[in-house]
Amino acid sequence: MASTARGAPLPQLRSLVEDPHFQEILHRSRSLTQKVLLSIPDTHKSCIHTATLQLNSSENVKLETMASILGIPPAPGLRAISENFTLESSLRRMHEGLLLHRGLLSSVSPRLEVKTKVADLMDDIRDVAVQITKMLKMVQPEAAVQSTTAPLSIHLPGDYEVQVATHLTLVQLQSFGQDMVRVLRSLEQSDEEEEENDS
């Protein structure tokens, strides 16, 4: 039988995902991720003063080249859990992505005039990462999970570059967070499903 978590056949994984403790952490993770998503617009408004940098703009695609020039790495890709993309892989990528964005915000924060909302957002990202780590430990008890990301070397010569780097980080975090919510929601057991399983 195909393995979905390393060494764990599909039925074993299903029983893990259906475990009430796992579901509780999963629900908390999704709630905290949604909290991050809800705070991104206010954070953006508080620290981005360049009128052309809008959070939900089709123009953001044009800034992708700028991201590579500034040294902003792309977020890890997330997709639905399958035999080819395990729960462990998904949780690891979520954790890596959260650390990446927290590291990026930490790099730009000292250069921002208003830091409060960015600091609050970084705390929320840390809280989500803690929950993801708990799930990862349930899936793979021996899993080694890094608690910090490698130092990021972002090229920020002036205020405009700081603005663009912060903007791109928030845009990318928003997209990554939306992908996280989709994956986490797909793993949640609804009350109806639980009733069907009990009957």
UniProtKB/TrEMBL annotation:
According to its UniProt entry, the protein's GO biological process terms are:
positive regulation of myeloid cell differentiation
What's a Gene Ontology MF term here? cytokine activity
Q: Which InterPro entries match?
A: 4_helix_cytokine-like_core, GCSF/MGF
Q: Which residues cross the membrane?
A: none
Superkingdom as given in the UniProt entry:
Eukaryota
This chain's protein is named Granulocyte colony-stimulating factor-like
Q: Which organism is this entry from?
A: Austrofundulus limnaeus
- Gene assigned in the entry: LOC106517350
